[in-house]
Amino acid sequence: MSTATTSQSSELLRFVTAGSVDDGKSTLIGRLLFDSKQIFEDQLEALERSSDLTGGGRINLANLTDGLRAEREQGITIDVAYRYFATPHRKFIVADSPGHVQYTRNMVTGASTANLMIVLVDARQGVIEQTRRHAYIASLLRIPHLVLCINKMDLVGYSEEIYNRISADFTRFATRLDIRDIAFIPVSALNGDNIVDPSTHMPWHKGPPLLRHLEEVYIASDLNLTDARFPVQYVLRPNSDEHHDFRGYAGQVAGGVFRVGDDVVALPSGRTTRITGIHTFDGPRQTAYAPMSVALLLADDVDISRGDLLVKPDNLPNIGQDIEADVSWMSARPLQLNGKYALKHATRNTRAIVRLLRHRTNIDTLEPEPAATLGLNDIGRIRLTTLTPLAFDSYRRNRQTGGFILIDEATNETVAAGMIADPAPAIPLAVNDGGYAI
């Protein structure tokens, strides 16, 4: 394995692969790990043995990520497989996601925390429906960077003309997406062209190979360092046995910067207090910023519990119970209008009723179309009402405080991933015996 140590890499890039079935996503990730010498000897031996069993005498690099037996037998990716690797320039977490439309919900899960998405296109087929679907999901999830890898260039004679045609087709489609950074790289994952080293078969391509692009893509500006947001995950109570002589509030900074001495507001109560200390695993510090995990010490004994949100007094989020959101429906059981669901938003759990389905999005045209419900893998705009007030931002502004999931309480199945739009006008709530009818 590479002798590069993780301590040399200061930044972490999370990226996800997407594309249609047989576009070569797992092979591309396997080639990336193999050519960058990120594979242990025992892994290589296991790959060689499995290649002998499957025939052909050639290492099947897809088996590095296709870990389930069913995946290997069918030759497709079913579940999201995560792999970690590092180079002297950067650390990486890669999510190899399914390409089959049946498993789009798995791909959404893998993409939800990504900085970058690699969308693979088979050079023989060009831009197809799944290409558009996955690119639209990248836009919906506000993934800042997208790389279109035009794969299997060896099967089209490394044709620059075909590469240019596919790039132009995707560019026309992408003008309707909200992705600020799109790069195009022609590759052959099977042969290693333009994966780690520049391809001698495509001298006409002047851009970097894939690994160098991943190492150099600028992600420092992706974080929201303006809106200070701290969802409280756990309350640390004084315990002399553990040498905790303070009451702190632990969690991960979801946006902005917090400093010792800053005034903060606890939501939804609205109580104001001041930060007196910031503790991390490595000891106390003066500042904390996204996405650090810290414990905040406060000057006053304010009633704060899991699910509350600490923010700055001069930069408040939206607070309300009526939410407009785009959702990716992830269940075979369709959306039930006026149905009750559990809702998880940051660290807060509540219940919600879906009041309205505004439209379903046509993936081919990206146009809204009338619909009575949403089915598996559909994307649409809904309006819902929560049982308790939420402190939230739009997903465009902050992915952590602007995202949520809906859960079927009867089956505990996650049925939808939601991205909050701009605040909607209030919907009157029915009141019954002093409580909301929800």
Q: Which keywords apply here?
A:
438 residues, alpha+beta, Rossmann fold, Elongation Factor Tu (Ef-tu), domain 3, 3 domains, eight-stranded antiparallel sheet, six-stranded mixed sheet, 7 helices, globular, disordered N terminus, disordered C terminus
Descriptive account of the structure:
With 438 residues, the chain is of the alpha+beta class. The chain folds into 3 domains: 6-222, 3-Layer(aba) Sandwich (Rossmann fold), CATH 3.40.50; 229-311, Elongation Factor Tu (Ef-tu), domain 3; 318-436, Elongation Factor Tu (Ef-tu), domain 3, CATH 2.40.30.10. The chain is 17% helix and 34% strand. The protein has 7 helices and 25 strands. The strands form 5 sheets. Strands 7, 8, 9, 11, 12, 13, 15 and 16 form an 8-stranded antiparallel β-sheet that branches. A 6-stranded mixed β-sheet has the order 2-3-1-4-5-6, sandwiched between helices. It is globular, with a radius of gyration of 24 Å.
The CATH C-level class name of the largest domain: Alpha Beta
Outline the low-pLDDT stretches: 1-9, 66-78, 425-438
| Rounded Rg | 24 Å
Please identify, by name, the CATH architecture of the largest domain: 3-Layer(aba) Sandwich
Structural class: alpha+beta
Strand content: 25-35%
Q: CATH homologous superfamily of the largest domain, by name?
A: P-loop containing nucleotide triphosphate hydrolases
Number of helices: 7
Q: Give the tally of β-strands.
A: 25
* Oligomerization status of the protein chains: single chain
Termini separation = 56 Å
What is the global morphology?
Answer: globular
CATH topology of the largest domain: Rossmann fold
Helix coverage percent of residues?
Answer: 10-25%
- Average of per-residue pLDDT values: 83
Instruction: Count the domains.
Output: 3
Main beta sheet? 8 strands, antiparallel
